[in-house]
Design a protein that fits this description.
Helix content: under 10%
Shape: elongated
Number of strands: 34
Largest sheet: 5 strands, antiparallel
Number of helices: 0
Strand content: over 45%
Structural class: mainly beta
Oligomer: single chain
Distance between the termini: 57 Å
């Protein structure tokens, strides 16, 4: 959920003292589609060595900043990296003559890039430059370029040139179009640069260009109320259907172009079982094998207490794989599919496995475990483990249809059953499979001579699909 900031108006501006004879005052009007500020987004206007940074953090209020720029000198408007919900940001640039020469509409996430370039003029009426160049419907042999009309413009020229070719001159003519879009069938469109300029009654604007680069993912959102994951994040991508993610220690160096992450087609990432420590998460888009964006990140987070994994239940014996130095745990068992919150409290234990009392045979139970670290901090809950409680038969006199003997067992474990047995699997107390064999018959035996002395569980499957859990001791 987006954070609603206090209803106070604030913007940070590094004051510009125009070191020139003729400063031209440009207006930069900031607003937001949902009227809750720019959520950490900011833009910097750069001309020579001078710069002004603007950011709207007001709730429900627009803001206009006056910026003096030197006449006749070029300037850039840079959308800085960082910030959430960039598609909500709206910006208008108004020239000293009162023209809207650029408008960034909502829905255009152009973070970490130059979004507008022009030469500062004071009183001249100019032919406005197209705004918010972007691509849609990108394929291996086609692309559609879109832009926003500025200042009532209704005609444009478009040129497409190889990336390595020089930019078109003012005298060169492109394809004339009457709508702010241009579609082109072109093999490997990422190898070309797209140029657009506005055609006015008596003039033409300067050319503005856009390459079909793979854009970074944006709207990285850390899901900080997750009950079952050490880290959970979501993001939004432009044209990519695949992303590359990297989760590492915060002390590791930042990734570069050659760093290899894990490729995913899901726009979410969840992980559990992390040991205590500080972590950094990075992500980049993979538009194709040859067209990969830069990394977005880091998104930093801290794991204070490691989450246990691998929860298993054998009868009333609940075991798990501990993570980190925790020596105490909370176990939550319910006969309802209830998901405990972070504030719910389970039964504390220092034993692993934990023996649960008062369970009813044949009842389905839902189990969660979390670590309790030395400073009293708890981890998030483990993933849910669901099981049907069965009595543990440990002797030849068990009333179950499955019997194992001798107790304790030596090198051979015998299994007698009124049902046809088809497999026997042996697990240790941590839930790790240590032996298995496909058998067939009502009386079978399993060689367990390789097992060390201790307590184990036998998972026996019969021909009719029944599963039986038996606890035994290997001497």
């Amino acid at each position: 959920m987006k954070q609603i900031l206090p209803a106070i108006l604030f913007f940070f501006a590094l004051a510009v003292k125009a070191q020139c004879d003729t400063p031209c005052i440009y207006q930069f009007k900031m607003s937001d589609m949902l009227t809750d500020g720019w959520n950490g987004n900011s833009m910097t206007i750069v001309q020579g060595t001078n710069s002004t940074t603007i950011s709207l953090t007001a709730f429900g209020t627009d803001q206009t900043v006056n910026v003096p720029l030197c006449y006749g000198e070029p300037f850039d408007v840079v959308w800085n990296a960082g910030g959430a919900y960039p598609q909500e940001c709206v910006l208008e640039i108004i020239s000293p003559s009162g023209q809207i020469i650029y408008k960034l509409n909502a829905g255009n996430p152009f973070q970490d890039s130059v979004i507008f370039s022009a030469t500062a003029l004071c009183d001249e009426i100019i032919c406005p430059i197209p705004a918010s160049l972007r691509f849609s419907e990108v394929g291996p042999e086609a692309a559609t370029l879109l832009w926003d009309a500025v200042g009532g413009a209704s005609s444009w020229e478009v040129m497409v040139l190889p990336k390595d070719d020089p930019a078109p001159t003012d005298d060169e003519q492109g394809t004339l179009v009457g709508t702010p879009s241009f579609s082109l069938v072109l093999e490997n469109p990422e190898d070309f640069a797209f140029y657009v300029r506005t055609v006015c009654d008596q003039d033409k604007s300067q050319w503005i260009s856009k390459n079909l680069d793979c854009s970074k993912p944006y709207n990285l959102v850390y899901v900080d109320n997750s009950r079952f994951y050490d880290f959970y994040t979501t993001w939004t991508g432009a044209f990519s259907s695949q992303w590359e993610i990297l989760l590492q220690s915060a002390s590791d160096p930042e990734p570069d172009e050659s760093t290899v992450g894990i490729v995913t087609s899901e726009s979410t990432f969840k992980t559990d079982g992390l040991v205590e420590g500080d972590y950094s998460f990075y992500i980049r888009s993979r538009c194709s094998d040859e067209n990969i964006s830069g990394w977005n990140g880091p998104m930093n987070f801290t794991v204070e207490c490691g989450q246990p994994t691998g929860v298993t239940a054998n009868g009333g014996s609940i075991s798990w794989t501990p993570i980190g130095p925790a020596t105490g745990w909370e176990v939550f068992i319910s006969d309802m599919p209830f998901q405990p919150t972070l504030t719910d409290i389970g039964t504390f234990t220092s034993d692993n496995p934990y023996i649960a009392d008062n369970l009813n045979v044949g009842t389905t139970y839902y189990t969660y475990v979390r670590s309790v670290c030395s400073d009293g901090v708890t981890s998030v809950w483990s993933q849910r483990y669901q099981f049907i409680h069965e009595e543990l038969g440990v002797s030849e006199n068990s009333r179950s249809s499955i019997q194992i003997f001798p107790v304790p067992a030596g090198d051979i474990l015998n299994v007698n059953s009124t049902e046809m047995v088809i497999s026997v699997r042996i697990f240790d107390l941590m839930g790790k499979e240590v032996a298995s064999e496909n058998l067939e018959g009502n009386a079978v035996e399993l060689n367990i001579s390789a097992l060390q002395s201790g307590m184990y569980f036998a998972h026996i499957v019969s021909e009719n699909g029944n599963h039986h859990i038996k606890k035994f001791i290997k001497k």
